[in-house]
Amino acid sequence: MPPLVGAELVHTPLQLYRYLLRCCRQLPSTAMQQHYQHAIRQVSHSDEDDPERIQMIIQRAIADADWILNKVRRKERIS
Q1: Residue 56 covered by a domain
Q2: Which residues have C-beta within 8 Å of that of residue 47, sequence separation ≥ 6?
Q3: Residue 54 backbone dihedrals phi, psi, to 5 degrees
Q4: Is the separation of the CB atoms in 37 and 24 below 8 Å?
Q5: Is the pTM of this model over 0.70?
Q6: In total, how many domains does the chain have?
Q7: What mean pLDDT do residues 32-51 have?
């Protein structure tokens, strides 16, 4: 299950960037949100020009965001 509706609509790096920042809003604490927002802003693949590689990066980033949000949700249920 993708973390937010619209994951299947992410096809460009800019769409991915905006999508990941929206995912950060679902994190429970402000500190956690700021940490991941900073990490998103630091990662740059602007020199990538291979469309297949860009799609691999997008798929991996969405999967990583899904993993983080699921981990946070599980911790909230346990607490």
Answers
A1: yes
A2: none
A3: -60, -45
A4: yes
A5: yes
A6: 1
A7: 90
Domain contains 21: yes
Q: Has residue 5 been placed in a domain? A: no
Inside any domain, residue 50: yes
Nearest Cα residue to 46 out of 24, 17, 74:
17
Q: Are 54 and 48 in contact (CB under 8 A)?
A: yes
CA nearest neighbour of 55 among 1, 2, 10, 3: 10
Q: Is 68 exposed, middle or buried (0-12, 13-18, 19+ CB in 10 A)?
A: middle
Instruction: Please count the other Cβ atoms lying within 10 Å of the Cβ belonging to residue 36.
Output: 17
Q: Which residue segment(s) compose the domain that 23 sits in?
A: 14-77
